[in-house]
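Record type: monomer structure entry
Structure origin: computed from sequence
Chain ID: A
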Amino acid sequence: MAVENPSLEEIGAILKKSKRIAVVGLSDKPDRTSYMVSEVMQKVGYEIIPVNPTVDEVLGVKAVASLKDIEGHIDIVNVFRRSEQLYDVAKEFDEIDADVFWAQQGLVNEDAYEFLNEKGYTVIMDLCIKVAHSFTK
């Protein structure tokens, strides 16, 4: 099965109703894409939760080691990990209270997509959340 993202209208609706974004692989280095994208999303009003076991804090927020360490509902899990790691992240995603699995631009894993799609989750792959937000404001 090929990966098929929701329409831009659906993505716009997701971004409008979402408040909390857990960012898997968020780096504490300002020159990294994950940092730059998450910083913009935080500045436009989203709560960013860094998920990275190798850092203490990013963007002024205490980091957690895994998605399972986050309390409460998560609207979007935004993933900055290599494509081959997406299936493991998808399995962890399935164990928490979250709505949308979003893999950043350049990241695709058909096994992860099929696993989550079959369970009824919204899955977005190979699309930058910051770019999508700028198109759907």
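Annotation 1: The radius of gyration is 14 Å.
Annotation 2: Helices lie at 8-17, 33-43, 86-93, 110-118, 129-136.
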